[in-house]
């Protein structure tokens, strides 16, 4: 009852003070497009897990072994587009620009992203082009951990848990 009463009072107030009313135009626009593919639901929130890696390994080899993952595009219509470019956005590592920064206890490392063919995918600026196939197209990506030169020189790779988040973007051509 109180809600109705308050609403009624506000309605009467706006009727009694018509000089304070103002007309506002509402403009709505957008683009309706035909997407050539549908991103597979399991690819939308992809998690990549690295096995335990001894920190001393980085002093001999600045990169870890790769962890591969796939972004699957389904129902691809090659009459709409012939290729797709993928790029990743996220927090740039301060010591290794173009690499994905990690958060957590681990220090001195960042994440490298590249295609299965070794083409780098620099965070916030790199992209790789893939040919679309009718039906299903697999975008195969590798992730590595890489120690910075500074952390290797100073023996500053610190053990601990880490995480990072990147968003992939697709551009069809």
Automatic annotation (TrEMBL):
Record domain Fimbrial-type adhesion: where: 28-172
The signal sequence is none
UniProt cross-references to Pfam families, sorted A to Z: Fimbrial (PF00419)
Q: What protein name is recorded for this chain?
A: Fimbrial protein
Annotated organism of origin? Serratia aquatilis
Q: What is the lineage of its organism?
A: Bacteria, Pseudomonadati, Pseudomonadota, Gammaproteobacteria, Enterobacterales
